[in-house]
Amino acid sequence: MVNNSIITFTQFKANPHKYIHDKKLFIFDLDNTLAQNGKPISKITKKFLETLIKKPIYLGIISGRQLENILQRIYVQKILDTKNSIFIGTNNGACLYEFKIKNNKLQKYVINQELLTTMDYEKITKVVKQILKDIKLPIPVRGKQIIKTPSSVIATIPGIDTPEHIKNKFDPDKKIRIRIISKIKELLTSYNVNIAGRTSIDITKHKVNKAQAIKLLIKYVNLSKNNAIFIGDEFYQQGNDLIVAQNKISSIFVQNPTQTQKLLSILVNLL
Length: 271
Ligand SMILES: [Mg+2]
Known about the structure:
Blueprint: E1 6-8, H1 9-14, H2 16-20, E2 25-28, H3 43-52, E3 58-62, H4 67-74, H5 76-79, E4 85-90, E5 95-102, E6 105-113, H6 118-134, E7 146-148, E8 153-156, H7 164-170, H8 175-187, E9 191-196, E10 200-205, H9 210-220, E11 228-232, H10 242-246, E12 251-253, H11 257-270
Parallel strand pairs: 1-12, 2-3, 2-11, 3-4, 11-12
Antiparallel strand pairs: 4-5, 5-6, 7-8, 8-10, 9-10
Helix pairs in contact: 3-11, 6-8
Magnesium ion binds at residues 29, 31-33, 232-234.
């Protein structure tokens, strides 16, 4: 690895104490890290998170996905107990929330929201529509391609009604989306454009990324950068985890949720 903030799982496993002895804030990516793409976390991972949250640390999850999707997949209410909280960053860090259980109910506290304005939506939608119209796709478009969320515009390239098995094969090497992104970036210079999930591109406000959200979270819990560690799987160029390591935040590079499970088993024993 070129970037010296990135720790491979093999390096971590050989000497975990070295990498986590000063860590107080653990932040996980969701897709292909805590859970399979688009799927809920496994029973084992859920058990580990339940144990981990009771340790004297802060726990966060940060993903390119929207809040509803993240909440459905990590069973927040079951992981939490009344003494603890969990931090969730959505849309690549555009929004940052803290969740707690109070009076048997899940409560959401807003830490930060980078919302798009009506003008932003108009500008982005116009450009994306034009580019999608001009591009030739290898499969027919099924359903809506542009979805608006409070903090992002999501372009689902083959359309939201594309069946799962076709989505899996649509753009595994990300080449189609890299090409589309470079076209979007030529016309939308003041926004952040990222690959998301298997078929989508996410457009948010310019400064939005996972590193910004993690830095904000570090401040919020009154720690320093050295006390934070991030676990993710997309540290390649265009991957939305790379920016975290580029900001000199220690990052463990896992290959898949099975490796994350092994990492979690080490953490719960060590912390
Ligand atoms: Mg991921």
